[in-house]
Amino acid sequence: MGPAVTDGSADPRTARTRARLRAALLAACEERSLDRVGVAQVARGAGVGRATFYLHYDDLHALAVDACAEIVTWAVDALHAWDGAPPGPDDPPAPLGALLVEIGARAPVYRSLLREGGGGPLGELLHAELRQRSLGELRARRPADPGQDLTASAVAALFTGVLADWVHGRTSATPALLAARIWRMLLAVHATARLTDGTP
C-alpha cells in the first residue's frame, strides 16, 4: 500500500510534511528496527500530530515504502548506468560502488528496512522496481528472446538478496569488492540466459 492520496497533495506544504515524516522515520530506524518504531514516535520526530500523519499515510509501512523510494531509484539507476553494451566483468558501473558506500554508511537504517532474505519495505520495492526496469530493457534490446521475465526475476532476486545479506552482516566485503562481485554475478545471469535461449 502506498502513500494515501490526499487533497492538496501537490501543495508544497504537503511535500514538506511528507519529507519531515520520511526523515523522522529514517532517524528512528537508526536506533531500532522498523517493527519497534511507532507512529507516535515518528510524528513527534517530524513535529506533527498523529492526525497529520494519517492524513498523509495509511500506516508506517506506507511511509516506509515512500522513504525507500529514493534509494531504490538510485539502486535501479546504478545497475543500468551505461550506454550501449554493458561494462565488462572487471568494470562495474561507478554509481553502483557509490550506492553501496552510502548504504554501508547507514547500515542500521537499511538493516531495519531490508529484512534478511530480501523482505521488508525496501526489499519488496527494490525487487519490484528492479525487475520492472530489467524486463523493460531486455525487451527493448532483445524483443524476440524468450524467458525474459525469468531473467529479470533472477536479476532482481540476486541483487536484493545479496544486498540484504550484506547489510545484515551475513557476508563480508567492502563496498568496492561487493560492487565487483555483484556485477560479475549479474553478467553471469545474463550470459546464462542467452546460452539457454540459444542466443549467440
Structural class: mainly alpha
Q: Whole-number average pLDDT? A: 89
**What is the percent of helical residues?**
55-70%
How many separate helices? 9
- Number of strand segments: 0
Main beta sheet, described? Answer: none
Gross geometry: elongated
Helix and strand run: HHHHHHHHH
What is the terminal-to-terminal distance?
A: 42 Å
Strand content is under 5%
> What's the Cα radius of gyration?
19 Å
Q: Identify low-pLDDT runs.
A: 1-8
What does this structure look like?
- The chain has helices spanning 12-31, 39-46, 50-56, 60-78, 94-105, 107-113, 120-141, 148-167, 175-197.
- It is mostly helical and 200 residues long.
- The chain is elongated, with a radius of gyration of 19 Å.
- Mean pLDDT is 89; it is low at 1-8.
Strand and helix layout:
Elements: H1 12-31, H2 39-46, H3 50-56, H4 60-78, H5 94-105, H6 107-113, H7 120-141, H8 148-167, H9 175-197
